[in-house]
Write a structure and sequence with these properties.
Helices cover about 70% and strands about 5% of the residues.
Length: about 290
């Protein structure tokens, strides 16, 4: 005899589906609608098909912003992941020192993004800022508003200060989850600290590091507020990343059609790069496949 099946439990998921629809699906469909139309006025629109997509793909400023964004995101990963692991390894494992270290490390994550930009804007000034004054006292020329390279490095340093704690906290959680039996076996075998890290700690936290890499890559690829407050995208276009370029298109120039088309391409770029990065990390984490 078949038991009756009650499907009313799916109603519990309905609020989540409604929230997802209003927060992502409906805005995405609106962007798709704008990307194939020329918005002349609120009452007048003309269907243009894929014209805006072709126009955006020929945009040299877009190509430059994309290259600038990729270099910045890869630089963020190259600095923050090793630095976060090193910070996690240096933190106490237990006791009140561990609690104090966790609170101290997490403090930058609690600061709003626009406040971070303001803090670093003051911090890097050569007249009243600690960093700017220190560099000036060493006899070095420093101007994050006048030199493109220094502006780019300042934004990178600001992002490292703000988000390395996230990597450190994730790595710290992964390290604390490793059973003590592995460390006991390593001590019996006389393994060095480097060998323990290479053969025990690093493999065991690979999953956590994969999450950290994906989170930091996606977030750094969408960076907007901090460099906008700190440098305004300048000098020139040195710190104008993709999100700022999109905002200039949509808000500054009111080109809703090209901005919508560009935002869809932006979304697909992020998804594609995250997919490639995830599969590459999965391949490295699979035994016997890293050398193939």
């Amino acid at each position: 005899m078949n038991k009756p099946v009650n499907q009313k439990a799916w109603l519990l998921v309905l609020p989540v589906l409604i929230c997802v629809a209003f927060s992502s699906i409906l805005p995405l469909m609106t962007v798709v609608n704008y990307s194939v139309q020329d918005i002349i006025s609120p009452e007048r629109r003309v269907f243009v098909g894929t014209e805006w997509f072709a126009s955006v793909m020929r945009d040299r400023e877009l190509h430059a912003a994309l290259a600038r964004q990729i270099v910045f995101s890869l630089s963020v990963l190259a600095v923050e992941i090793p630095l976060g692991i090193a910070l996690a390894l240096s933190m106490p494992a237990s006791g009140w020192r561990a609690s104090a270290a966790l609170v101290a490390v997490a403090l930058p994550l609690l600061i709003p993004w626009n406040v971070v930009g303001t803090i670093w804007q003051i911090f890097c000034r050569t007249d009243i800022g600690l960093l700017g004054s220190a560099i000036k006292a060493l006899g070095l020329e420093y101007s994050y508003t006048g030199d493109a390279t220094q502006a780019w490095l300042t934004v990178l340093l600001m992002d490292v200060w703000h988000w390395t704690p996230l990597v450190a906290l994730l790595a710290y959680a992964g390290l604390r989850a490793i059973p003590d039996a592995y460390y006991q076996a390593a001590r019996i075998d006389g393994a060095s600290r480097l060998a323990v890290f290479r053969y025990i700690q690093l493999p065991k936290i690979r999953g956590v590091l994969m999450i950290a890499v994906l989170l930091r890559f996606m977030d750094s690829f969408m960076i907007y507020t901090e460099p906008f407050v700190l440098t305004g995208g300048g000098p020139g276009n040195a710190t104008t990343f993709l999100s700022q370029y999109l905002t200039q298109k949509a808000v500054g120039q009111f080109d809703l059609g090209p901005a919508a088309a560009f935002s869809l391409i932006y979304f697909l770029i992020i998804m594609l790069l995250c997919f490639i990065l995830y599969n590459w990390m999965q391949r490295l984490g699979t035994p016997g496949r890293a050398d193939k």
